[in-house]
Structure formats: structure tokens, C-alpha cells
Write a sequence for this structure.
């Protein structure tokens, strides 16, 4: 007899659906985001079959989504004694999730953008067809992107306690910048 999966509480269902929608807006597959949200809310590991049944998804979709989540280090396999199936659990620390996502996005998006901008600036400097405005704008985009990269590196190196304090300070941090009121 097949085990019945009980329906999720309404608050969990709502969060899972909303996280899926947000993922879609951020360029992440909706199923990947929904599975991540579901696993994030759990306190015990579950199988891909359990995920598929609970979220009413195709097993192949769940498998592909799990591979994606594993590649981002947002979930991990948990061995269960006496059970040969893979069980999965999500990282539960919000800061750690944010750091892993930002690290992945930096690697996939920011680093290649910086490299391309650097190449474009070098080529633009030696190309008489590129006017000063275009070169200045390429340089401005590079400088902005480099500053974001530097900020990422600084925040990534902070201890969790320091990051929490910085976030709680919010705009009050501006009081430490000379000349600002």
C-alpha cells in the first residue's frame, strides 16, 4: 500500500508558491525554487519521491531540480541508515544561503562581466572609432562592477555576527562617512 502524503499547512504552501514565483523573477526555474523552499522548511531529510508527491511534480523534474540545487550547495544529501535512497535537506541558515547564492552568481555573472568589460576597454582604447563618451561609459560600468565585486569580497569575509550588525545598522552606517549628515 502506497504511503499517503498529507497536505502541507497553508502557510508552508503559500511560502513555497511565493518562493517559486520569486525564483522565476530572478531567472531561476520555478520548480527549483519551490523544491528549495520546501526543503528549507523541513527539519528532516526527505527523498526525491517524497518531494515529487508532496509538491505534485514529475519525478524527472524533481531530479533535475535537485541537481541544480546541489550544484549551488543549497541542499545536501543525508544518508539514512537502512535506506539506500538519497535523502535531501536544505541549508537552514539564511545568511549561508545568501552567501552561497551570491557566490554562485558572482562566479556565473559578475566575474565574466568584469573580464569582458576589461577586454572591451582595452580594445576601445586602441580603436579610433570608439569615441570618448563610449570609452568613459565602459570605464564607468567597469568601475561600478569592480566596486560591487570588492564589496562582495568584503562582506563574504565578514563573520556572521559582523554581517548581522552591519545589516541592523542600515542607513546609520552613513554617519561614519566624513562630510555626510
Amino acid at each position: 500500500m502506497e504511503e499517503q502524503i498529507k497536505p502541507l499547512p497553508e502557510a508552508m504552501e503559500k511560502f513555497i508558491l511565493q518562493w517559486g514565483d520569486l525564483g522565476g523573477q530572478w531567472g531561476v526555474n520555478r520548480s527549483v525554487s519551490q523544491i528549495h523552499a520546501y526543503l528549507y522548511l523541513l527539519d528532516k531529510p526527505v527523498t526525491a519521491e517524497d518531494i515529487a508527491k508532496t509538491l505534485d511534480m514529475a519525478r524527472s523534474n524533481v531530479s533535475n531540480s535537485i541537481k541544480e540545487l546541489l550544484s549551488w550547495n543549497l541542499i545536501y544529501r543525508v544518508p539514512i541508515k537502512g535506506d539506500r535512497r538519497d535523502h535531501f535537506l536544505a541549508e537552514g541558515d539564511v545568511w549561508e544561503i545568501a552567501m552561497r547564492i551570491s557566490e554562485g552568481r558572482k562566479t556565473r555573472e559578475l566575474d565574466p562581466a568584469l573580464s569582458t568589460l576589461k577586454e572591451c576597454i582595452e580594445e576601445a582604447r586602441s580603436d579610433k572609432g570608439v569615441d570618448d563618451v563610449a570609452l568613459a561609459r565602459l570605464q564607468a560600468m567597469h568601475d561600478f562592477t569592480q566596486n560591487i565585486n570588492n564589496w562582495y569580497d568584503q562582506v563574504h569575509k565578514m563573520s556572521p555576527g559582523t554581517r548581522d550588525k552591519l545589516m541592523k545598522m542600515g542607513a546609520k552606517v552613513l554617519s561614519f562617512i566624513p562630510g555626510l549628515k
About this structure: Residues 71 and 104 are 9 Å apart (CA to CA). The chain is about 65% helix and 5% strand. The chain has two domains: 10-90, 94-158. The chain has a mean pLDDT of 92.
